[in-house]
Write a structure and sequence with these properties.
InterPro entries: NuoE_dom, NuoE_N, Thioredoxin-like_sf. It is an enzyme of class 1 (oxidoreductase). GO terms for molecular function: NADH dehydrogenase (quinone) (non-electrogenic) activity. Its EC number is 1.6.5.9. This is NADH-quinone oxidoreductase subunit NuoE. By secondary structure, this protein is an alpha+beta fold. Among the domains are: 60 residues, Arc Repressor Mutant, subunit A (Orthogonal Bundle); 105 residues, Glutaredoxin. Helices cover 41% and strands 7% of the residues. The chain contains twelve helices and five strands. The protein has a five-stranded mixed sheet with strand order 2-3-1-4-5, covered by helices on one side. A hairpin with a 2-residue loop joins strand 4 and strand 5. The longest helix has 19 residues. The protein starts with 18 loop residues before the first helix and ends in a 19-residue tail after the last helix. 27% of the residues are buried. The N terminus is likely disordered. Bound molecules: FE2/S2 (inorganic) cluster. The site of FE2/S2 (inorganic) cluster has 12 residues, from helix 8.
């Protein structure tokens, strides 16, 4: 006969239980490593993990750091470099930046979580940002976002903010996000794909756009540089461009001025309006010495 305290513990199932509990609950005949939640989550494998940030990435990191008098100033482009490798900033990416820049992981994490351009979940091949700030929202931005969320969702469930349709990083995968004012109110409602502008959108035009992205096409943005993909743009944001000047122009340049944007300046010129001249004898405010 067994007393309650002598009852054998139930064999734990793989799951998210802390490892100590798993170990304590397992009998001697249980292969603890085999049922470890760590193994189930893919963190423990028989093969050593491939190095995410190899020698080439370290060399690029050093190149970024050399641009600044103090290494910590290189954090923002470094995080873009990490995103060009991983498609987001993982905890490993945080540790990489901290190590390269002599910062703590907490300092790097504070920056990553502050700026919306740094993603904490793997991104799709394309990042679609729909402006739902006041002017765009009033002119149809909310309807565009809703339509895209439903169109890209599955089983009747709309895609959520920063969620991805398809497998992140795979061709045709798309991450959808709400964006605050994209500084293009004169073309509202607007959206961006990998930070390139698609102006004067409608729900129908936006659905057509994401469908062509899913087919592997790259429709030309309304203005600016041609469309590439999220990781390539992150590389540019880290400050790496083609050395060949012609290729550089093709990759990153493009006409960006538009009649709508210039209209105010044209009206002012026609009517002779100018900004008030600055009086020469007005002293500039004192700036605190650094
Ligand atoms: S409100 Fe959408 S670009 Fe300004």
């Amino acid at each position: 006969m067994t007393t309650p305290s002598q009852q054998p513990s139930p064999t734990p199932k793989p799951g998210r239980d802390p490892a100590e509990r798993t170990h304590a609950a397992a009998g001697e005949d249980v292969d603890v490593m085999a049922i470890s939640p760590v193994r189930e989550e893919g963190m423990l494998t028989d093969e050593p993990p491939a190095e995410t940030f190899g020698a080439d990435v370290v060399a690029q990191a050093r190149e970024i750091i050399a641009r600044y008098p103090q290494s910590r100033s290189a954090l923002l482009p470094m995080l873009h470099l990490v995103q060009s490798v991983e498609g987001y900033v993982s905890q490993e990416g945080v540790a990489f930046c901290a190590e390269q820049l002599g910062l703590s992981e907490a300092e790097v994490s504070a920056v990553v979580t502050f700026y919306t351009m740094y993603k904490r979940k793997p991104c799709g091949e394309h990042l679609v940002s729909v402006c739902t700030n006041t002017l765009c929202a009033a002119l149809g931005g909310d309807a565009i976002y809703r339509q895209l969320a439903e169109h890209l969702g599955e089983d009747g469930k709309p895609l959520g903010h920063e969620e991805t349709a398809g497998t992140p990083g795979e061709p045709g995968s798309i991450t959808l996000e709400h964006a605050e004012c994209l500084a293009a109110c004169d073309f509202a409602p607007v959206l961006q794909v990998n930070y390139e502008y698609y102006d004067n959108q409608t729900p129908e035009k936006a659905v057509e756009l994401v469908d062509s992205l899913r087919r592997g096409e790259k429709p030309a943005p309304t203005r600016g540089a041609p469309l590439s993909d999220f990781k390539s743009v992150e590389r540019q944001l880290a400050g790496f461009f083609p050395e060949d000047d012609d290729q550089f122009r093709i990759d990153v340049d493009g006409p960006s001025q538009a009649v709508e944007t210039l209209r105010g300046a044209q009206l002012a010129a026609e009517r002779g309006w100018t900004a008030p001249a600055m009086a020469e004898d007005v002293p500039l405010p004192e700036v605190e010495a650094k």
